[in-house]
Records
---
Amino acid sequence: MTMAGRNVVVTGAGRGLGRSIAATLAGQGASVAVWDLNADGAEKTVAAIQEAGGEAVAVTVDVSDAAAVAAAAARTHEELGPVTVLVNNAGVTTYVPFTELGEDEWDRMVRINLKSQYLVSRSFVPDMLAAGWGRIVNISSSSAQTGAPAMAHYAASKGGVIGFTKALAIEFADKGITVNNVPPGFVDTPLLREGFDPDEVAPSMPMKRAGQPADIAHAVAYLVSEEAAYVTGQTLSVNGGRYLV
């Protein structure tokens, strides 16, 4: 698989899954815009990509803010040109029992995890329509498939991502644009470690280990490739057997 000549945006690419996805696609020849709220994290990802011989630019942006997304999209277009591959990876999580879950925290979770994917996607779908080719991969979560205690807001936001994916997939299926989602399950990232110890979780997993960011990155690389041209609207679960469909 090659991504030579493709311009890519990966959100939340300053660490964890996003960093691995950005590096993997850059390693296949893509020019990558590394979007993240954390400027230092974005710059570190870009530095790693450039050190490996790839091309990348760092873009600091709050993907839940419409004006910020519009400005980031304009800068990305100026730096790279039209974007035909988008990976909506940015997201947050917290652990709050439902009876203690406030409206502000609910709204924050939905704004960052779900609304952001709408805002960023609408910025680049026109590029894909103009090219007659495009790939969107949305990162959802296995928690949306199984449910999870103290994560009603998170599971709901990520369940919305799965529905959003299917709707876009159908709408653009005859336009050369595929839209799929990957729900990670217990992947060892800084975000996971905010709520779990991977070593404690591993024995409960069928594979007896936590996933690694590269496991997700390789799945994304397939879905954005030419080889996946007839795959759209799908949920590619990368979870070590945690949830089977």
---
Amino acid sequence: MLGLAMEVAIAAAYEAGRLTKEKFGNLTHVEEKDDHGDMVTEADHLAEAIILAKIRNVFPEHRIRSEEFGENENQSEWLWLVDPLDGTNNFAIGLPLFGISITLMHHLVPVLAVIYEPITDRLYTATSGGGVTCNQRPITMEPGGAFTKARVGWIQGHAVQNEEIAVRLRHHIDVNTRRMMRLWAPTLQWTMLARGDLDGIIVYNSEGEDLYSGLLMAQEAGGSVIDFNGNPFTVARKQPYLIACHPRHQAYFLDMVHQVMRKL
């Protein structure tokens, strides 16, 4: 079943990617989606329609949750998570940092993921126990040498905004690392981690359709995903506070988080 699901996800991601690339720089409609400054464009809706149609055609009994559509009413142990345009705000202002994210969950555990970056034409795929590929070439997360300052991606949920603890932790990471990166397109940060261009990612209460594709990519590239208490990630949760990195760097990132938490 996973083989067929992967075929469907890849075909959907490619077609949605072609659509978003054609629409990039040629938008006719952009609107504010919520009070947090998030945007939605016609490209979001058109790409979503492409992906959902392909999934429904082959797996009509599966649950689907997509960023704009919401969730269908099916009862199934299989759940598709779809972000048809991760990085909409970038897309809307002409910044070419965006992607398509499709994840298949089984009993709320990610088992298959596809992330496609249309501008660079990079297709990332991952399956549980099957590793990660970029354009069909396997990739793994390398620990590198010892470092005193890391390159870190920060991902927070829309509702977090300037919550006091988040602000303190962001500031601490920013001043104590070589680079803290916020791309407005989380899945691109996850692919950077998987291929070794980031040393770690801190997730602060960011649960959404774009999260679990990245988590699976990180794990299957050889990375470790743990919560702020050091417990390994096992299943989807409503309020994830997570650290993803190479296993050798777990203590470094846990200590970084705990330096802030101990002062509260």
